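Summary for the lay section of the report: proteins are chains of building blocks that fold into shapes. Here we show the chain for Carboxypeptidase family protein and then a coded description of the shape we predicted for it.
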Amino acid sequence: MIKKLSLISLFTLLPASYYFAQTTVYAYVKDQDGKPLERAEVDLAQSGDDVTADKIGYFQFVDLQPGHYLITVTRPNFESKIVEFDVTSDEKRKDLGVITLNSNAGTDAGVVVIDDSANDTEDGGSAMQPTVGLLSSGRDAFQNVAAFELGAYWFRPRGVDNRFEDVLFNGVSMSKNDDGRIDFSNWGGLNDVTRYPYENVDNITPSEYTFGNLGGVVYYNTRASTYRKQTSLAYSFTNRSYLHRAMATYSSGLTKNGWAVTLSGSRRWGDRAIIDGVYQDSYAYFGSIEKKFSDRHSINLTGFGSPTYRASNAPNTQEVYDLMGKNYNSYWGWQDGEKRNSRIRKVFEPIFMLTDYLKIGKNSNWINTFSYQFGSDARSRLDWFHAADPNPTYYRKLPSYGDFTADEFRANSQINWNALYQANYINANDMGGVDRGAVYTLVEDVNKDKTFNFSSHFDTRLKDNWKLNINFNYQNLKSDNFRRIKDLLGANYAYNLNAFNNDVQYNLDDPNVQVKKGDRTQYSYELTRNQYALNVSSEIDFTKWNVMASIFASYSEAQRDGHYRNGITRFTNDSKGKSPIYDALDAGIKARITYKINGKNFIVYNGAFFSLAPTLNEIYINPRAVNYLTPGVKNQMINSNELSYIMRGQILKLRLSGYYTTINNATEIARYYVDATDAVGTSYNTLVNEAMSGVNKRYLGAELGFDVKVTSTLNAIGVASVGDYEYTDNADVSTFDDLNGFRGEEFWKGQANVKGYKVAGTPQKAFSFGLKYNSPKYWWIGASANYLMDQYLEFSALNKTPYMYTNPDTNDPYDGVTPELIQQLTSQRKFDDQFMLNANAGKSFVFGKYRMGISISVNNILNNRDYVTGGFEQGRNVRFPDILEDSSKEYPSFAPKLWYDRGINFFTNVYLRF
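The coded shape description reads as follows.
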């Protein structure tokens, strides 16, 4: 009888326990004005089924068992939103509250095509042409306008460049060890899978996943199940740095057996963009596969890469632009009826990641990622041996020098590839058939990096209002750097000899000085770096206050291992083998304090104080030749503070911020080629490494961004950025080249007088005002007027030293030197203010389960070609008599080299999703 009762009880209670173990989860979807969003699609990652919000924005999922869930809420013309939540066994109904979607009607139209091809060369100073910073949507009005409107004109918020930004994939930093910058080309073309970051914090705001830097943090989570279940096809047409882009993406969602797959691929290609001789053929791929073992444990494997083949464009002096126009590019010439560019960047550095997701208890998560990145980055250039410089814009070939007329220059304004082949042929056969090496070659500067990373993130809720994050990172880099022969241009071999220094051998240990195609030549060395970093952050939320604090500490070791024993006697013993280890210890603290005046008004303070170890390029002044450290290289000390007032109203959204940042003890390296000419007119080419150490800079300014809803469909968006970025002290300066070796402060007669000079590479003041109309019928149109001010030229430090005006024969100033004349000759050039007009439009369609959209954005509608996007002083004239004589010419021989805006440009995009 007892057994029967037990069985009856069991079968009676089973349905009840099953009922209590399942939960209904519901929420309301609304726009930023609180209006319900009908037909918003809600994708539950753990299920193959979607639900659609009804007329009041309501949706629900029924019969969810206990576990951790993730939903993605999407609707045309709005930004998608990801929501994570937990279901426990004691919940019958779970209310997720109101899910607010922000309008992004113009986001697809406002795509900024990253074009950093000007950074592929070594022709200029440390800044060269600026690189676009972090591009993302979903932030406040200021950040969106800074990225998509002003960012198209190389505007950098707060003057902060790529060196101080952080992009993480699954906790792994994408910053390069050589210069600290982010190479966006590593995932170029993968817009579908990088469109919505998992975390996006601006400026010095603390992050949950890393300590961060000055320029914000973007964190991407590539977990396959977090991508919306769909197939997406897209095609784009543009005239910027390529012509065509085709892209396809598929996401399976999480299947019933616990698998999820996301795949994406694209191609970008075209050879008739705005600048002459620029072409590109780049592919991209992405794959992510996840296996969910339980509600608490998943493993994800991710792989992505972007094989890129891209031609570069040259900076030019104003004389060249006046002769040839703003689209002129000296890096290419005709060969067999086709354009051939000498400066090609070929890069492919795939990365693979294995990530383990583990939920511990009710409130804790532990995420661990192992990653490995490898591949090569090769950048080509012409090289010559006891021959004339083949560069069409070499200063002796310009009309201002007097040897050629303007018409003669125009007739020979491109690289003459046939003449280079002919020169090699003549050199090999003018000695009665004696085989001799090439006088012209095409070489590649290559670095092959192998990078291993381990990243661990742990977060837990100590209380309902108290969260703790712990991040640990380890990185091991082995970077193989060398020059190799890419093309002998018809010759049988090239010489591995230093023509600039009496034809000494680049490698004394190799008696064979003849090198063939694919062989290493001139330099070969390896850099290694190990880094350990620990970051702890905590956030506490009170009724009126929110406080977040973050601390970090890191230790790094760097070492150079030279493969060649340099033939220059004074470098021989410091060129081959392992150098002493350079180690650095960093630490820092960040804090954010938010005061909630009410539900719409906030006051936020962010502060940061931390050190930053030098990059590999900053540690070694000329690693190609020797293991010498850069004189005075130290950790940078960074102190930054900001105070903001934020309003998030139904009609008006506004942020007003003031900031003050100092960077001390920085090291800035500029590397550029200069020539010397012997008695018979033969030119030699050598790399000069110019270093400023003990650099102190100050960044001061204010930002205003607002978004006003004029009507239910019309928004007015305005931005103002007023900054003042300058050098606050004089700096030590030194140079290193093959001919002269080190020349330090003693040679240059003192420090570089750079106090008061402005930081280059970005307009220091920028203003934008735009209108955007969002139709209820799923189309939009927008326009913005943009005004850019206070753009400065990147200066060379050498002519700012006392050496410039000191006669070495007398150790006194040259005759005629006055403080006023020195100021006139060395003053920093400020470019004219510029006005730019942008516009975008688009429409989206819904056909059952199919969604289609088309958009177009046009920048610089007025075709303003006077805006200088970047430029640098040439580091050639450093003596008063030479500078004075050159400056008196209409077109100075060593005038600054500049890049100009490309004028009217467009980007069109059409997509189909189902």
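Put simply, here is one thing we learned. The CA atoms of residues 172 and 185 lie 16 Å apart.
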